[in-house]
Amino acid sequence: MKKYAKILGLIVTAASIASMTAGCSSSKSGSSSASEVQVTEEHTTSDITAATVTANIPEPVGSISDTLPTPEELFTTKDISPPLVENDAEINLMGSKAEVEGTGVTIEGSTVTITSEGIYSISGELTNGQIIIDAPEASVHLKLNNVNITSGTSAPLLINDAKKTYITLEYNSVNSLTDGRSSIIPEGEDIPDAALFSRDSLTINGGGTLNIKGNYCGIRSKDDTVITGGVLNITAGCDGIKAKDYVAAADGELNITSGGDGIKASGKDENAPGFVYAEGGSFDISSMGDGIQAEGIFYAKGGDFRITTAGGNDLSGGYKNTDKDMSPDDIGSSHTGLPEVFGGEAPNSKKGIKAGTELNISGGTFSINSADDALHSNGSVFISGGSAVTLSAEDDGIHADNSISVSGGTLRIFNAREGFESAVMDISGGDMRIFAEDDGINAGDGTPSSHKEDPVEGVSVVISGGSFYANAIGGDGIDSNGDLTILGGDITVNGPEHGMNSALDCNGVFIVSGGTLIATGYHDMADHPSQSSTQCSASIGFETISEAGMPFVLEDESGKELLRYAPMHSYDHVVISTPLLEKGKTYKAYAGDGGEGGSFTFTVSDMVTRQGLQTYMDKFRDN
Questions:
Q1: Average pLDDT over residues 184-209
Q2: Distances (CA, A) of 141 to 34, 36, 138, 312, 417
Q3: What does R_g of the chain's alpha carbons equal in angstroms?
Q4: How is 419-466 classified by DSSP, letter by letter?
Q5: Which residues pair with 274 in a beta bridge?
Q6: First to last CA, the chain
Q7: How far apart are CA 477 and CA 608, in angstroms?
């Protein structure tokens, strides 16, 4: 968004600008009044000395997702396919007691303890009991077949000590773990704070259902958690699934309602921070904290994600997107209502998906309705492949502290304060539509800046491909506090319906060397490409305001229509750049029916041709 320093500059210089423009006339536009604070002459930018500058195009930011374990390492054959061998023991739960047939199990009242490596089939109900695995360095395999365990004193299923535990949900079985504790667990105490608590590596697979309910976490592992099958219905007052090393999913159906984060990889080791990985499965998450949080990397190669955080983006008091091609229906989780928060204090962070170092989506479908940023990374964000992403956000659609790269996929930001926000934007492919209450794209490093200040070093927007559409309600369509470079792609920008911001705003060098650009808005603060561009552009300001839906048309000298666009907002200024504009050729541009003040015929004589009303900022620019 343009900073108020820029608005202040307009006010301070209004008198002198008015004196410069008073009495100036145009052969096509007539005279201008002293109050217009704008240039009205018909001229080309050849009247201004062209700056011999070029945009600083940074090297593309590389992904670090290849540092993660391979899928073969994350999902072993045993993780995916339960062993088809005989059980070592059959455990039958019987209310307040249990029976066992086999070895490796001890029973004391309603507490069943597994002490040896093996395969254990479990069925029945414990009304106030617990299953404990206490088998150091052992591989333990549980097969749950219609198991129902409730505990009011500890985790119903506690993996206290084992090298690895596999939990298979038998086909068509319905299993339940209910943690009935109500007291607050002291912070820092090493007390099992989940209905399914594991101190070691955990895998869940199979074709049955597991219902988990508790005031604390649903599932917590102090190692990794792998999910390759089954239906998990989790209701938790704190985090739904929390693991220290990583959470990895290849299949399965996860339905999570949580008062904390939906899924969380909490490992803080600088050399191997916790990560979340998905290549399949479905995730329906309603959380009061972050939908998914990874201390390190979030990487999705597949999967179906529906996420709502803290009730989602409240459209009742602010901007409502009225684009008929987009709808808020079915954005986010299918769960309605706000989750209960254990202890009554909701988390401060309410982002859809948050990553500490990298958020990488190369496949899958995402539908996120967030009370904060929908996608957030403290490092970089990558969107590519055949991914389909639909976002609605109370804050930013996508935020990255360092960079955002889009090279493929379909991206729809239904509503956000700002669509993209980062220091560096690299758009080389994909199909994007952004509706923003403020800026469609905001490129900055977080420091204050204005158009009168030097551009911010290291900040840039580079668009080299793809289809990009931005609709800015109050801010700029594309705002770069550094450079803006367009090398290709199909770019359409609707600026706001006022003159305090514009369709395009660039503090640094604005270069166009390819692609098609059309940006509509108001002339007061409008930016246009630099003379250093290698593709011709036109900056056209009409004397009359065209209402929303009134088309802008570009024709060649024979009357052939080259381009037609009907903006969603009212406008009096258009910036267009296309390979169809050629030096030495004559064109006609008009808005609506091309009546008085709404039509220009011009010959392209330089890289940027200006017609009619232009921003007062041109008086202070050399490009």
A1: 88
A2: 84, 79, 10, 39, 48
A3: 30
A4: EEEESEEEEEEEEEEEEESS-SEEE--SS---TTSPPPTT-EEEEEEE
A5: none
A6: 21
A7: 20
Q: Rounded mean pLDDT of 159-185?
A: 92
The backbone region for 7, taken as left when phi is positive above 0, alpha when psi lies in -120 to 50, beta otherwise, is alpha
Asked whether the predicted pLDDT for residue 354 surpasses 90, the reply is yes
Residue 442 β-bridge partners: 421, 479
Q: Give the helix/strand (H/E) hosting 511.
A: strand 510-512
Residues 37, 22: Cα–Cα separation, whole Å: 9
Q: Is 491 helix (H, G, I), strand (E, B) or coil?
A: strand
In Å, how far are 17, 146, 163, 200, 209 from 140, measured between CA atoms?
Answer: 80, 19, 8, 11, 20
pLDDT digits (tens, 9 = 90+) for 284-323: 999 999 999 999 999 999 999 999 999 998 755 545 565 6
Q: What is residue 18's predicted lDDT score, i.e. its pLDDT? A: 33
Report whether pLDDT(125) > 90.
yes
Which H or E element spans position 74? helix 71-74
pLDDT at 333 over 60: yes
Q: pLDDT: is 544 or 16 the higher one?
A: 544
User: Is residue 6 scored above 70 in pLDDT?
Assistant: no
Q: Compute the distance between CA of residue 37 and CA of residue 174 in angstroms, rounded to an integer.
A: 73
pLDDT in the model for residue 39: 26
Residue 69 tokens read as 């374990």
d(CA 65, CA 385): 15
Query: What are the C-alpha distances in Å from 56 to residues 49, 137, 485, 535?
Result: 21, 56, 8, 17
Residue 112, sorted as left (phi over 0), alpha (psi -120 to 50) or beta, turns out to be: beta
Beta pairing partners, 238 = none
- Run of H or E residues at 78: helix 77-80
Most confident range (mean pLDDT) of 448-452, 554-558, 593-597 is: 554-558
**Is 73 strand, coil or helix?**
helix
Q: Are 207 and 229 in contact (CB under 8 A)?
A: yes
Using DSSP's 3-state secondary structure scheme, residue 616 falls into helix
**How far from chain centre, in Å, is Cα 467?**
17
- Residue keyed to tokens 């993209």: 420
CB proximity list for 441: less than 8 A, separation 6 or greater: 418, 419, 420, 421, 425, 434, 461, 470, 477, 478, 479, 480
Closest CA to 237 of 268, 206, 253, 213: 213
Angstrom CA distances, 259 to 112, 342, 570, stand at 30, 7, 44
Decide which of 428 and 37 is more confident: 428
> What's at 68, amino acid-wise?
L
Tokens of 623: 């490009």
Confidence of residue 453 (pLDDT cuts 50, 70, 90): low
Tens-place pLDDT, residues 558-607:
999 999 999 999 999 999 999 999 999 999 999 987 777 689 999 999 99
> Residues 195, 219: contact at Cβ < 8 Å?
yes
Please give the Cα distance from 3 to 119 (Å, whole number). Answer: 65
- Assess contact for 532 and 52: CB atoms under 8 A: yes
Residue of higher predicted confidence among 559 and 51: 559
Instruction: Please state the φ and ψ torsions of residue 371, each to the nearest 5 degrees.
Output: -85, 5
Q: What is the 3-state secondary structure (H, E, C) of 83-98?
A: CCCCCCEEEEEEECEE
Question: Residue 46: helix, strand or coil by DSSP?
Answer: helix
Of 203, 258, 263, residue with least CA distance to 228? 203
